[in-house]
Amino acid sequence: MGVGNAATHTDKKVIRRKWKWNRNGTVLRKTKYALLGKEADQGLLFKLFIYVILIDTAYIYLNPLFFMISTMVKDASDLVDPAVNWVPRVIYLGTLQEAWVMLDYAKSFFLSTGLTLAIAASQTLLCAVAGYAFARLEFPLKTFWMFCLLLTFIVPPQLTILPMLLAASELGWINKLYPLLLPALFGHGLKGALFVIIFRQFFGTQPKDLEEAARIDGANVFKVFYKVMLPLARPAIIVVFLFSFVWNWNDSYYPGMYLINAQDVPLSLGMSKISAGIEARIAENGPTVFDEPIKMATSFLMILPPLVLYMFTQRYFVEGVERTGLVE
């Protein structure tokens, strides 16, 4: 009996020890899975790393915006007080009102909106046509025309602006909007070659069965494009339209060349003229405490419409970028 009891006691100790090992092993495995995850991108450490990267990146991009807003709402006492850095003691909107008047904001806003929408819509439609032709159709000298398209993308606009200015002058289009609109009506304009490449990339990835089925039903090439392929290109259309809108909205180079002495100018050119005027006055009379807030206020009024547009179209824009193959 004594020997039997001792053996039973030993077995219980072994079982208890194994149970503890199993329990410790389970806890260790759970801790490991929680920290590292079953997959490399599912662990807590990886998620913390991703959040650190995202917060750092967001800070880099948002810091100038926060500085802009903070500076433009400071009054004179906050601007000269070194203790006031980010948060002003009083919200002062006088600088914003002054920038509104200096930009003639209502008139410039509608001019910029109409001009940019017309250019973006033209570029989107006509670049889609060109991109489809390069992706799906066969025509003489196709490789040569693709090379010419890439040249327009590679060559900087500073090399081509002089002949374009001379042509506009010959046509009497200086201080008019025609030189800004006309290239877009031919599927070109600012970054037009890049938009054609985006559409070419998108149409090149679509299955050919759809086109063949439409052709069997008697559709010609135009009907295939507008009825079959163009509706599929919604992601590329959104991406190209938003890119075109934002880039043309912010562009002050081409308007500065063609609208030299124009009375009504887009917001981008108006902001550039105000900044140049402030710099000239600083060079002559020295800086004042309101110079920087005025620049910040004009910049804020300038970027406000694209920011609002991006807030409402962010989801479509991200989906479009993913589906057009711009990022992998």
Automatic annotation (TrEMBL):
Q: Which UniProt keywords apply?
A: Cell membrane, Membrane, Transmembrane, Transmembrane helix, Transport
Ubl conjugation as a keyword of this entry, yes or no, is: no
Q: What is the recorded name of this protein? A: Carbohydrate ABC transporter permease
Keyword check for ATP-binding, yes or no. Answer: no
Question: What's a Pfam family in this record?
Answer: BPD_transp_1
Membrane topology, as annotated: Multi-pass membrane protein
- Where in the numbering of this chain does the ABC transmembrane type-1 domain appear? 113-313
What residue ranges are annotated as transmembrane?
44-62, 109-132, 144-168, 180-203, 224-247, 294-313
User: Sorted alphabetically, which PROSITE patterns does this protein's record hold?
Assistant: ABC_TM1
Q: Which family does it belong to?
A: Belongs to the binding-protein-dependent transport system permease family.
Q: Highest lineage ranks of the organism?
A: Bacteria, Bacillati, Bacillota, Bacilli, Bacillales
Any single GO CC term annotated in Swiss-Prot or TrEMBL for this entry = plasma membrane
Q: Which GO terms describe its biological process?
A: transmembrane transport
Q: Which InterPro entries match?
A: MetI-like, MetI-like_sf
